[in-house]
UniProtKB/TrEMBL annotation:
Topology relative to the membrane: Multi-pass membrane protein
Organism: Nocardiopsis metallicus
Descriptive protein name: NCS1 family nucleobase:cation symporter-1
Gene Ontology MF, one: nucleobase transmembrane transporter activity
Superkingdom classification of source: Bacteria
Family stated for the protein in its record: Belongs to the purine-cytosine permease (2.A.39) family.
Transmembrane domains' residue ranges: 16-36, 43-64, 84-105, 126-150, 170-192, 204-222, 234-259, 280-299
InterPro entries referenced in this protein's UniProt entry, alphabetically: Pur-cyt_permease, Uracil/uridine/allantoin_perm
Subcellular location: Membrane
Chief location: membrane
Length: 351
């Protein structure tokens, strides 16, 4: 039967079936986020082990196709560690960091549900670094295997699983890829903005409403245009976003660890008279640090190292302004803390 009619209709230069798949994919993610954080948690619980099983199965299949791990990893091409390699390596690394920079800033949206401090520390320490390292290793090894079997490296997992001859294996692989994409996108790109929008106007915007707004904005930026060119997506989009978010991370680190020494006044966070209100709710030191860090990370001479430059620059500027030009409330708090500490030492029994 001739099924060429399926892809005959073109909409915006793409088959209508592609737009239908995109719409279904979008609706699935909206349904999960409307389920609430409990829905997100359940998806993550199921997705994580299946992603691990699927990755290992893909690696084993590719090794069998290549005739073992030895032929799969063997290469006639010597490694080139010259300037060209490093010129590509660091911008690529910044792109990878930029991809995860969102989650580094809104990880508290997840850890807030941990039962204890120990639980969130263990979860982050054992969950993220180990799994990311393992999946990166699997991805590199599978790609090396495709180069050995098909005489060219295939990076896209969809194209890799398309080479499978087993119908059941192909369906399982596609299911795992889709589940991994959905779970990752919901956790990294929907939860954070949903909470941020809800916090802007809690009376008007709930978590679910914020998620819906984010979902529509995600379509309005035309993500398919970003993915048309890998160089634009990795080195321009992710590099720029990563550099800007690196500046935000630098401000948070400097403020929490150096200026406040890990001490947070929780009631003051919700008071206009508290130490965090600054000038009408704006801390000009953080704004200046963000502007400098973002500008250097995007348009500076070292923009290829965007995330690192943004983080270091904003970290340094925010610490310096907070240290030498502190807010008057901060001065009073530091003075009170010093007095209490001195009084405590005076009251200590001598031995």
């Amino acid at each position: 039967m001739d099924r060429g009619w399926i892809n005959a209709g073109q909409v915006g230069g793409n088959p209508w079936t592609l737009w239908l798949s995109f719409a279904l994919f979008w609706l699935i993610q909206v349904a999960i986020i409307l389920w609430g954080m409990e829905g997100v948690r359940k998806v993550q619980v199921w997705a994580a082990p299946l992603m691990l099983v699927g990755g290992i199965a893909l690696l084993v299949w590719m090794a069998s196709e290549a005739g073992g791990f030895g032929p799969m990893l063997a290469s006639d091409q010597p490694l080139d560690w010259g300037p060209a390699f490093w010129a590509l390596f660091f911008p690529s690394l910044m792109g990878v960091i930029g991809y995860w920079a969102t989650l580094t800033l809104n990880i508290s949206d997840f850890t807030r549900f941990a039962g204890t401090q120990r639980a969130q520390v263990l979860g982050q320490s054992l969950g993220l670094p180990t799994t990311m390292t393992l999946f990166s290793l699997i991805a590199v090894m599978v790609t090396a295997g495709t180069a050995a079997v098909y005489e060219e490296p295939i990076w896209n997992p969809i194209y890799v699983v398309n080479e499978m001859e087993s119908g059941i294996g192909l369906l399982f692989a596609i299911f795992v890829v889709l589940l991994a994409t959905v779970s990752t996108n919901v956790a990294a790109n929907l939860v954070g903005p949903a909470y941020d929008l809800a916090n802007l106007k809690p009376k008007w915007i709930s978590f679910r409403t914020g998620a819906l707004i984010t979902s529509f904005l995600g379509v309005m930026i035309f993500p398919w245009k970003l993915l048309e060119d890998e160089n634009t997506y990795i080195f321009v989009w992710l590099g720029t976003v990563g550099g800007i978010l690196g500046a935000v991370a630098g401000i948070l680190l400097a403020d929490y660890w150096l200026l406040r020494r890990t001490r947070i006044n929780l009631p003051a966070l919700f008071s206009r008279e508290g130490e965090y209100w600054y000038s009408g709710g704006w801390n000009w030191r953080a704004l200046v640090a963000f502007g400098i860090g973002a500008a250097l990370s995007v348009a500076g001479p070292l923009a290829s190292y965007g995330w690192v430059i943004g983080l270091v620059a904003a970290f340094t500027v925010h610490w310096a302004l907070g240290r030498f030009l502190p807010d008057h409330r901060m001065r009073a708090i530091e003075s009170d803390a010093a007095e209490r500490e001195a009084a405590g030492r005076e009251g200590e029994p001598t031995v």
